[in-house]
Amino acid sequence: MNLVFLGPPGVGKGTQAAQVAREMGLAHVATGDILRAAVKEGTKTGLEAKGYMDAGKLVPDEVVNRLVRERLEKKDAEKGLLFDGYPRTGAQAASLDGTLKELGRRVEMVFDFQAPDGVLVERISGRRTCGKCQASYHVKFKASSKGDACEKCGGALVQRSDDRPETVKARLEVYRKDTAGVGEHYRKTGTYAAIDANRPIEAISADVLGRAKRLS
Ligand code: AMP
Fold first, then answer.
1. Residue 58 CB less than 6 A away from ligand 1
2. Residue 114's domain spans which residues?
3. pTM score
4. What's 98's domain CATH number?
5. Does any domain span residue 73?
6. Which residues of the chain have pLDDT under 70?
7. How far is the C-alpha of 166 from the C-alpha of 149, rounded, in Å?
8. Residue from 13, 71, 123, 128 carrying the catalytic annotation
């Protein structure tokens, strides 16, 4: 089964994606995580992507599409995929549809997480990420039991550089301009579910997991 999680920055799709991927036995493909790892490693792709990411802009389609195609060649992709933060443009959606078709696969369901802008800004400003394993926390809604350290690996929790207020505004604008239309693309294919993400984390997980399990 192949799922897509869409939604604006801060809506909580990464938290939900990690849990649903674990419970459903899917490979979690988060393009933001792949890009941050490339930046950290200082690869050619990472160096190219960094400027866009720091400015809150989208990394060019051809770069992201290539990373996704490479990711699909890994063994664990065979068990099914959960795309988190991809596709983010019409061109990415077309590329994903084409790549999956070549593999005799398709997107079974798209979950479009939605919440008001005020909620998104509050969630982003309190978000903390493990610098080592990328696990995600929130100072108010999902605090680590180990304070400033990651519960899973003990790594230091940091605020992502693009979660600072000036960049968040740019990311929300990019989302409205480039990404909101991707939902429309999938709505037409009849594989689309809008998810009210302005609820407690557990209520959202139960809703999404229930829908995903009914598909399998
Ligand atoms: P995220 O972790 O999904 O919020 O992504 C962080 C940043 O990585 C975004 O603001 C973009 O600069 C870049 N990025 C992640 N996924 C994509 C994508 N599918 N297309 C273009 N840029 C992306």
1. yes
2. 3-26+79-215
3. 0.91
4. 3.40.50.300
5. no
6. none
7. 26
8. 13
